[in-house]
Design brief:
- By secondary structure, the protein is α/β, with parallel strands linked by helices.
- The protein folds into two domains: about 200 residues, Rossmann fold (3-Layer(aba) Sandwich), CATH 3.40.50.1100; about 100 residues, Rossmann fold (3-Layer(aba) Sandwich).
- Helix content is about 35%, strand content about 10%.
- It contains ten helices and ten strands.
- The radius of gyration is 21 Å and the shape is globular.
Length: about 350
């Protein structure tokens, strides 16, 4: 049994001071024997996902340069995790927040944002991600609000370069790191971490993944954008998929940096059902509770492991916690009442007759 080390962190002036510095955890039971697999578990952020990082940096950068005024309303389009992160940051700093979100995303996500004080404006699922994005832009322009612009702002990839990437380099200082596996939503993680790994760990292969039925990067087609780098159309190769938080129906400007500068060595698509299956295995066999996006990234890490040389070290991003997927296919088949086996256990001792 190993003794858990502590860095002495225990008292903070604000919940916002706890963002980042997430743990890297070894996979012990379900990884192939010939490789070592780690996950960077972003559920340890205070609002439960990797998006807490960009939410904090977007707000604080805008405060510093005057783009965000005291008391000004913040507005953003999100599939959930960025909105939850922004709701936490805005609650801590006293900014009103309005989120636009397609009504296809999980109910618990909108309830979490409202619980944190945000207003959530739902857009039709038929309008996809581009529809919720348009609604956020319209509300910003009509009301003079601050648009967080997670898909375009340099504050997004910058925070991953300055925190996520640095944490990874520090955690593997002097040790092997052969593969880094990540999906993308805005593209901030792969662009920011990619800058650091290409500069300081050029031998590390970066593996990017996207849904098998929505291969917009793999298609080679880049959607049009306006002068502000905002998308002006939905991507023709997009299809609805179950990996919430991944792959809106356009290629974000933040992601374009990783594409143009070749921050990934291989693009491996993954079917949503495989991500669900691996998320369930991580929970049941490793005690690691992550969502469909985490399971999907891990599924790709397992594919990489199949052909990786003996002794390879693989790091996989797990973007969030599984708790915001309770109403999604991830939890289909998980019983609410006792199963027959559980009922039999209940009846196996005398107290069941009381």
């Amino acid at each position: 049994m190993s003794i858990r080390q502590t860095n002495g962190r225990g008292r903070f002036d604000s919940i916002l001071d706890t963002v980042g510095d997430t743990p890297v955890v070894r996979i012990n039971r379900i990884a192939p024997d010939h490789v070592t697999v780690y996950v960077k578990f972003e559920a340890f952020n205070p609002a439960g996902s990797v998006k807490d990082r960009l939410a904090l940096n977007i707000i604080e950068s805008a405060e510093r340069d005057g783009r965000l005024k005291p008391g000004q309303t913040v507005v953003e389009a999100t599939s959930g995790n960025t909105g939850i992160g922004l709701a936490m940051v805005c609650a801590a700093k006293g900014y009103p927040l309005v989120v636009t979100m397609a009504d296809s995303f999980s109910i618990e996500r909108r309830r979490l944002m409202r619980f944190l004080g945000a207003k959530v404006v739902l857009t039709p699922r038929t309008a996809k991600g581009f529809g919720m994005y348009q609604k956020a832009v319209e509300l910003c322009e009509a009301n003079g609000w601050f648009l967080a612009s997670q898909f375009e702002t340099p504050d997004n990839a910058d925070i991953h370069e300055n925190t996520t990437g640095r944490e990874i380099v520090n955690d593997f200082n002097g040790e092997k790191l052969d593969y880094f596996v990540t999906g993308y939503g805005t593209g901030g993680t792969v662009s920011g971490v990619g800058r650091v790994l290409r500069r300081e760990r050029p031998d590390t292969k970066i593996i990017l993944t996207e849904p098998a039925n929505a291969q917009i990067v793999g298609s080679g087609y880049v959607n049009t954008r306006n002068e502000g780098h905002q998308p002006t159309e939905g991507h023709p190769n997009f299809e609805p998929h179950p990996i919430q938080g991944w792959t809106p129906d356009f290629i974000p400007w933040v992601l374009q940096e990783a594409i143009d500068k070749k921050y990934y060595d291989e693009l491996l698509p993954i079917p949503g059902p495989e991500g669900i299956a691996w998320s369930r295995r991580l929970a049941a066999e490793e005690g690691i509770f992550t969502g469909i996006s985490g399971g999907s990234t891990f599924a790709v890490a397992m594919k990489v492991a199949e052909s990786a040389p003996e002794g390879s070290v693989i790091l996989c991003m797990l973007p969030d916690t599984g708790e915001r997927y309770l109403s999604t296919p991830l939890f289909e088949g998980v019983a609410e009442e006792m199963t027959e086996e559980e009922a039999a256990l209940s009846k196996s001792t005398p107290s069941h007759q009381m």
